[in-house]
Amino acid sequence: MKADPSEQLRLLDLQALDTRLDQLEHRRHSMPELAEIAALDKELAHLRNLLVAAETQLSDLERERARAETDVEQVRTRVRRDRDRMDSGRITNSKELVELSSELESLARRQSVLEDVELEVMERIEVSSAEHQRVSVDVAAVEEKRAAAAGRRDAVLAEVDGEAALTTSAREAVVRDIGPQLLALYDKVRASSGGLGAAELKARRCQGCRLELNTVDLSTFRDAAPDEVLRCEECRRILVRTPESGL
């Protein structure tokens, strides 16, 4: 392939810009904030599950307390009713009075049991509420950390996007100085050579594979016309000659 030497030199500029774009893309996907956010998301998911469990338990306990309070109040109502009957003096039958007194004793025992149940439920609610509060605080703390990490991520992405836009614009300007055939070869080689399509021939060494030219290749390149497009015999990248090539 033939190409004006000035076009070949522009390949080095193009390669530098493409390398920078690759670096920016790598930075976009490898910034530490991404791993940090992923870890925080995992922690948040776990904490939110704990929070749901705590809320469910607290809700169940509140219903249990309501039932206990209702049971206690029902017994208290019966006690007040029976005591009022006994204190009213309307009951004169001794047997009925004995039965009523016995019922009051039974209700008192029942009330004591139910009040103990109510107290135990309230203690469990206190423990559950403390756990719910603790998990809520943990969730808020991790959410704050994630928001901070997301802010740093967005700042880096904005910086990367800004530089990438400028670099892409500069690349488009360079591409206009390169013929379509040479550009197509460069793109093909770059795609198959780890992103490096063109390399400088410097001090008789390919800057792509870093190998020094052997005597035969050196002689061949020295005799090549200025517009001939050279390829490294080792890595097959386009070799661009400069005053520092050592030919």
UniProtKB/TrEMBL annotation:
Coiled coil: 37-78
Keywords: Coiled coil
CT398-like coiled coil hairpin domain: residues covered: 14-194
A Pfam family this chain is assigned to: CT398_CC
InterPro entries: CT398_CC_hairpin, Oxidative_Scav/Glycosyltrans, Zf-RING_7
C4-type zinc ribbon domain boundaries: 205-239
Keyword presence, Coiled coil: yes
Record bears the keyword Coiled coil: yes
Name of the protein described by the UniProt record: Uncharacterized protein
